[in-house]
């Protein structure tokens, strides 16, 4: 069974402003992008569970020309708050690495 780590050549997560996080999944090639870009394993419900956000607010933006998907979700707390553990959200993608796509 393929995981996100197997299917993607690069992943990154970053701030999308003080209230949002964005995760970019760059698939290995167009065929892999086509196969997994709309996988339920990358759906809003999965992001809601993994990141403690409201599934109705998760945004999914496929970019076929780059073989990538951009997924954005609201942060549970504003950037820089007292309980902040990853201010720039650079490590948020790690939770996705083992997600099975098939």
Number of helices: 3
Largest sheet: 4 strands, antiparallel
Q: Calculate the terminal CA-CA distance, rounded to whole Å.
A: 6 Å
| Order of SSEs | HEEHHEE
Average pLDDT across residues? 93
What would you report as the Rg, rounded to the nearest angstrom? Answer: 13 Å
List segments where confidence is low: pLDDT < 50 over at least 5 consecutive residues: none
Topology, number of strands: 4
Strand content: 25-35%
The amount of helix comes to: 10-25%
Structural class: alpha+beta
Spatial strand arrangement across the major sheet: 1-2-4-3
How many domains? The number is: 1
Q: Give the overall silhouette.
A: elongated
Search tags:
alpha+beta; 102 residues; four-stranded antiparallel beta sheet; 19% helix; 3 helices
Topology of this structure?
Elements: H1 4-7, E1 8-15, E2 20-27, H2 30-36, H3 44-51, E3 59-63, E4 68-74
Antiparallel strand pairs: 1-2, 2-4, 3-4
Task: Describe, in plain words, how this protein is organized in 3D.
- The chain has 102 residues and is an alpha+beta fold.
- It has one domain (4-96).
- Helices cover 19% and strands 27% of the residues.
- The protein has three helices and four strands.
- The chain has helices at residues 4-7, 30-36, 44-51; strands spanning 8-15, 20-27, 59-63, 68-74.
- A four-stranded antiparallel β-sheet has the order 1-2-4-3.
- Strand 3 and strand 4 (68-74) form a beta hairpin.
- The longest helix is centred in the middle third of the chain and has 8 residues, at 44-51.
- It starts with a helix and ends in a 28-residue tail after the last strand.
- The model has no long low-confidence stretch (mean pLDDT 93).
């Amino acid at each position: 069974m393929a995981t996100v780590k197997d299917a993607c050549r690069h992943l990154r997560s970053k701030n999308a402003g003080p209230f949002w996080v964005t995760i970019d999944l760059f698939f290995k090639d167009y065929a892999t992008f086509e196969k997994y870009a709309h996988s339920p394993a990358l759906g809003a419900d999965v992001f809601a569970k993994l990141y403690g956000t409201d599934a109705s607010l998760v945004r999914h933006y496929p970019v076929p020309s780059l073989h990538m998907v951009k997924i954005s979700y609201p942060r549970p707390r504003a950037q820089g708050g007292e309980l902040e553990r990853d201010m720039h959200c650079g490590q948020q993608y790690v939770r996705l690495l083992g997600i099975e796509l098939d």
